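Entry type: protein chain
Record version: 2
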Amino acid sequence: MPFVKGQIPWNKGLRMPKEFGEKMSKALTGRKLSKEHLKNMYKPLGFEKGHIPWNKGRSKRMKKICLSCGKRFEVFYSFKNQRYCSNKCFRKDNSGKNHPNWKGGEITKLCGACGKEFKVQHSRGQKAKFCCHVCYAKNLKENPAGIIDNLKLGWGYNKGKKMSEKQKKKLSVIAKNRPAWVVRKTLMHRTPNKKEQILNRILKTNWPHEWKFVGDGRVVIEGKNPDFINTNGKKQIIELFGTYWHKESEVDERTNIFGKYGYKTLILWENELKNEQEVISKVLALNCTERP
């Protein structure tokens, strides 16, 4: 039943007065319950005379002897299955050869390339065939140039060395020819940085539900991942370039790649975000929808 403002409660004025409570407390002080009353109380619980409680003696500690060192130690009744006094004693009896899953330890095998003996763990006994990475590289069908020399020097052989221009060009060609699934996998957990967040705020305030951030690998065109794309049926892309990571030569490259598929691209630099009106005018010049 819902309460209404001004409603009078049913127990208003029916509280026990203090004088009556004091009289009842004085009358009940010193009184004891009869045996019949106590029997009626404990009958539904199943207690009878001579009943042993379930926790009798369990609060005390049990005395036991360690199986490893032979020392005596005390344990609570809840840990009655404990057999060792400490972790050190447990590790002595359950490590190495004493462990129930012990299978003989390391295995000696012959290398398939140089013929030397080498030791391997029992878990890798069936898979291990070579003693080192150099022997493994020698037996590859397609051995890349210089891989054996680099493995001899050890991992991190090129630490501190500067890359030549030829190496940079090779890496750039490899990066351009990457398949789309590789780009998506590398960028799937990427979130917009501070500059992209500022541009995203400008686009959402002026053109709500028009632009979407796809810099996390959702859209890939010839190995290139644009930053923002129009979701209103128009083939339009906005790229935000940083002065440290991008060069002016990349402007024509991106516009030509996206232009093959009918996309109009607008490239903004991070320095232009300081003036919000210029950014809005450039987006309007891209033949976007009119501002609401």
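Comment: Residues 212 and 228 are 5 Å apart (CA to CA).
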